[in-house]
Amino acid sequence: MTSPWPHIEVTPSGGSQDLDAAEKGVYDNTQSLATLPPLADPKKTMIHSESFLSPMSPLHEGITPSSSVPVLSLSPSPEKQANKAAVPEIGPLRRRWILFQLWFNTYRKFFTFVTMLNLAGIIMASLSRFPYAEKHLGALVLGNLLTAILMRNELFLRCLYTIAIYGLRSWAPVSIKLAATSVLQHVGGVHSGCAISGAAWLVFKVVDIIRHRNIQPSAVIATGIVTNLMIIISVLSAYPWVRNYHHNVFEGYHRFIGWLGLAATWSFVILGNQYDLNEGRWRANANSLISTQELWFAVFMTVFVLIPWCTLRKVNVEVEVPSPKVAVLRFDRGIQQGLLGRISRTSIMEYHAFGIISEGRHSPYHYMICGVQGDFTKSLVADPPKAVWTREMKFAGVGHASAMFKRGIRICTGTGIGAALSTCIQDPNWFLIWIGSDQEKTFGPTIAGLIHNNIPPERMILWDSKQRGGRPDTMQLLKETWDSFGAEVIFITSNMKGNDEMMQGCRAVTDLDT
Question: Which regions span the lipid bilayer (predicted)?
Fold first, then answer.
């Protein structure tokens, strides 16, 4: 039996600021998205949710709906009320099962699979049951580290999104599109799993070298230990608590120690392969080095680390400060929907990512909304810059995958509008629901104009919780919009609390077998 509301899969963990913070326009963190499967009609289907965790797009908090803006009734007629399926009460066992499913999302599934697979390999290698590892232990280290780098590389991810969008858009059922979107959103699980696994394989390799130190040159042992320390420090600095609450510490250690680790890796690879263990001497030529897998893994690691930095530019910016809570940054050139940009006052440190708002590729401008939260965003309001550093190669957020779907709903709260607005501006088949507090006053006329000049009233609901005396019943709002707009997918962009509330509400009325 098909349930009226979908099955859900959630985004990974992160900061959990409450909805009030998001609605006030101060939530400055982003992450990616989660998925929710089929809805009422089997022909319509699923929900995708996006929760922001890292410094990203602080969004315009909404514009008070005027009388011309259709607002879906939250007090339906008795006939409609009789036909509307209420959210049922759920028992404690099912509630725990729902929470577990939301927690064990695709990110954690990827992470678990990758780490368990590598752990099995390490155990097999330690028992001398893994012949490949005996001959190519370094390749297992660098193969994992290269994969970890690729999963966070702008160019590689843009290629993955392009393949998924153009490969699935015209023929694939929504279930397959949602699965692909969930994979794209949660590749961070592969990144984390491969980074930890690469460090574990490196420890195993260095321990193996130390065990045979009587035939190993001291230079190889020393570079192996240094490389190990660098990689382990870089991995530990990315622990979520450090990343979320001590961003500059994370960025400094993860980036600079990571770069030193890459340099040490080159030394380790070259020295390790240039020493002939059988003859006990250094090789005079590099022929054997060129043919090793480890060298080419190191080459590609270096190339993919350098590519984003090759697009680094200092660009002019105009900053509008409509309120003490928000800075709206305007840059030259238009950009396609669903992309995010990193900006900084310096060339190599303290980069923060924000959602990009643009009317299209041919528009003269694109915008970022920066909600005041940390020192960086406070400085944008207190001391607006004339220019900032940015990478011209923007990275794809999960909202970029909305191009796969024919018709959908973007619901966002507070600053989440920054990640959601471009989709609804550039694609007439997307409906915008924006819930925020005192939106026009907080975010100013620029964002208000972008919304009202590009999205017709019948394609948006702007809910000002200050004027309306509180937040709406989001589940009923989604249900009614879903039915009236004929959507096949819903993208939820909120903080963790708002995201979880909406997904748990959907899951509570879902047939878990669908």
Answer: 110-130, 136-152, 219-241, 256-275, 295-315
Q: Is 88 exposed, middle or buried (0-12, 13-18, 19+ CB in 10 A)?
A: exposed
What single letter denotes the amino acid at residue 168? L
**Is the confidence at residue 331, as pLDDT, over 90?**
yes
Q: d(Cα 388, Cα 367) in Å, to the nearest integer?
A: 13
Please, are residues 187 and 159 in contact by the beta-carbon 8 Å criterion? no
Q: Which of 44-53, 122-131, 407-416 has the highest mean pLDDT?
A: 122-131
Query: Looking at this protein, which amino acid is placed at residue 351?
Result: Y
Distance, in Å, from the CA atom of 428 to the CA atom of 455, rounded to the nearest integer, reads: 8
The DSSP symbol for 383 reads: S
Cα–Cα distance measured from residue 194 to residue 337, given in angstroms and rounded to the nearest whole number: 30
Provide the sign of the torsion angle of the four alpha carbons 108, 114, 115, 119, taken in this order.
positive
Provide the mean pLDDT of the chain: 82
SS3 395: strand
DSSP state of 96: H
Q: Name every residue whose Cβ is closer than 8 Å to that of residue 39 and which is 6 or more positions away in sequence.
A: 4, 5, 6, 45, 46, 47, 482
- CB–CB of 161/396 below 8 Å? yes
Alpha-carbon distances of 142 from 127, 211, 419, rounded to whole Å: 22, 21, 34
For range 421-447, the mean pLDDT: 94
E strand or H helix at 462 = strand 460-464
Domain map (residue ranges) of the chain: 19-93+397-508
Residues in contact with 259: Cβ distance below 8 Å, sequence separation at least 6, in sequence order:
305
pLDDT in tens, 22-35: 333 333 333 333 33
**Sign of dihedral through CA atoms 213, 214, 215, 220?**
positive
